[in-house]
Amino acid sequence: MSVDMNSQGSDSNEEDYDPNCEEEEEDEDPGDIEDYYDGVANDVEQQGADAFDPEEYQFTCLTYKESESTLNEHMASLAATLKVSHAVAKLVLVSFHWQISEILERHKSNAAQLLVEARVQPTSSKHAMVHSSHHCAVCMQFVRKENLLSLACQHQFCRSCWEQHCTVLVKDGVGVGVSCMAQDCLLRTPEDFVFPLLPSEELKDKYRRYLFRDYVESHYQLQLCPGADCPMVIQVQEPKARRVQCNRCNEVFCFKCRQMYHAPTDCATIRKWLTKCADDSETANYISAHTKDCPKCNICIEKNGGCNHMIFFLCLRVGFLLFSADFCWMCLGDWKTHGSEYYECSRYKENPDIVNQSQQAQAREALKKYLFYFERWENHNKSLQLEAQTYQRIQEKIQERVMNNLGTWIDWQYLQNAAKLLAKCRYTLQYTYPYAYYMESGPRKKLFEYQQAQLEAEIENLSWKVERADSYDRGDLENQMHIAEQRRRTLLKDFHDT
What separation in angstroms does the CA of 386 have from each of 164, 190, 329, 430? Predict the structure, then answer.
């Protein structure tokens, strides 16, 4: 890669409920290459690669009606077994994340306790303390007995207070969380108790959406698609932090946390990392700039592509001779010896004596460590955006060759697949840095850093060849694709949370 001198909703089904319709979603990073996981396996595995893919994950995309049918099937079966209403059965399922085998085991050992734990029946002691009265415990008005309503806890309130209570909560987006109004009473209200209390069809439709949202979110095998205005539900057999993609809106996300896919970093760690990046954004601003100084001539330069192998051709003019600087964008080290030193470029060197130094020194060391990992995280994110532009140029070049009868799309498809695979590998590499930042020092971290460095070296080799595809034959490029993907799979196999 050369450098430049610096200068100053989708359609919706009418029959589908949209559980996300009132929630604002953040825009995804625009630098990603769409569908870069698709269409590259053959180019890699035909080279004799191990067919095992640590990211392989089976999932199904369900419409609203399909997911509702699945939920109702579980509910009807459990209601018959427990001999309770359908509405109560749903609350029991929500409480135990729809794990029917666990519910049946608990029911077998103690049926009454199961309903108490599901918050649909009170404990016997609390039930005994309730006294009959014709006064509403909220408005303190005398009410005729037929206008007093209560749950199984027998806390009685007038119909008007119940209506106001349910209306306010549903307007606030509450579904299964509507509970008894009595102080310290946690009993949940079944949906067949709430629906007659809602004064309008509009409010009932909202409540229906919120219930569906809560039923799906509580189900250990289901996740709502986080795509804007998308009503689809993702179903899996075994919930894991794996990559899933909606077949309606093409949203890609982690099944476990519904955030951007983040392998090999686990869900809790990526949340910590993103929070830290947001909190320290001002501190990190100075390294977020696109520019650096050339290590030879100190001229301010800017990357114009994703590759971190820099060649600055305007460096060190001497008479009529033109010299070039050949260096690494990240560490500014000489690229000629970089192959053997790449491990040092991606590994942060801890200060073993820092614990014995002052608090100020420890704070400076902590900031230095964070900036080291943040700069590499941010750099690969920017490289992804720049390589998306390379991908577009490759597509245009293929189109031009096809139009000039220099082959078909199939003949040149490997160039497009190489750019897709490059994005796939770099995306994984970007998420290795939060993983390394929070990782405890020791032999396992040394192994991780070694594999991370190997992956990074092969990605830079692939990036260099993709940007100069005309200088390499197809076999050379596909061989580099194979090597890079194998490095990626090896790292994920050893370190991806299962």
Answer: 55, 53, 14, 14
Separation CA 247–CA 249 (nearest Å): 6
Predicted confidence at residue 311, as pLDDT, reads 58
Q: Give Dmax over CA atoms of the chain in angstroms.
A: 104
The string of DSSP letters for 337-393 reads: GHHHHHHHHHS----TTGGGS-HHHHHHHHHHHHHHHHHHHHHHHHHHHHHHHHHHH
d(CA 428, CA 491): 10
Angstrom distance (rounded) from CA 421 to CA 483? 11
Phi, psi of 223 (to 5 degrees): -145, 140
In a domain, 297, yes or no: yes
Task: Please give the mean pLDDT across all residues of the chain.
Answer: 82
* 137 vs 212 pLDDT, higher one: 212
Q: What is the count of structural domains for the chain?
A: 1
Could you tell me how many residues make up the chain? 498
Tell whether 459 is covered by a domain.
yes
Cα angle: 342, vertex 348, 352; to 5 degrees = 130
State the pLDDT confidence band at 409, using cuts at 50, 70 and 90.
very high
Between CA 229 and CA 24 the distance in angstroms is 10
The answer, yes or no, to whether the previous bond of 54 is cis (omega within 30 of 0) is no
What pLDDT is stored for residue 51 in this prediction? 66
Residues labelled catalytic: 307
d(CA 272, CA 315): 41
Task: Provide the CB-side half-sphere exposure for 43 (13 A, CA).
Answer: 28
Residue 47 belongs to a domain: no
CATH of the domain at 320: 1.20.120.1750
